[in-house]
């Protein structure tokens, strides 16, 4: 039996950034970015 994993857009974006080796994420903090900010781990800096 195959299992399908569901990811949110924010989770998928963070996984892509991990694969690309990104250390810094630049953006404007706000309501629209909260999901992304909440999903970035300790290895990233949001500037």
Automatic annotation (TrEMBL):
Gene3D superfamilies: 3.40.50.970. It comes from the Bacteria. Signal peptide: none annotated. Residues 8-41 form the Thiamine pyrophosphate enzyme N-terminal TPP-binding domain. One of its GO terms (molecular function) is thiamine pyrophosphate binding. Pfam families: TPP_enzyme_N. This is Thiamine pyrophosphate enzyme N-terminal TPP-binding domain-containing protein. It comes from Clostridium tyrobutyricum DIVETGP.
């Amino acid at each position: 039996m195959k299992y399908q994993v569901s990811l949110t857009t924010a989770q998928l974006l963070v996984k892509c950034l991990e694969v690309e080796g990104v250390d810094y994420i630049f953006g404007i903090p706000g309501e629209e970015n909260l999901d992304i900010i909440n999903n970035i781990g300790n290895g990233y800096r949001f500037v």
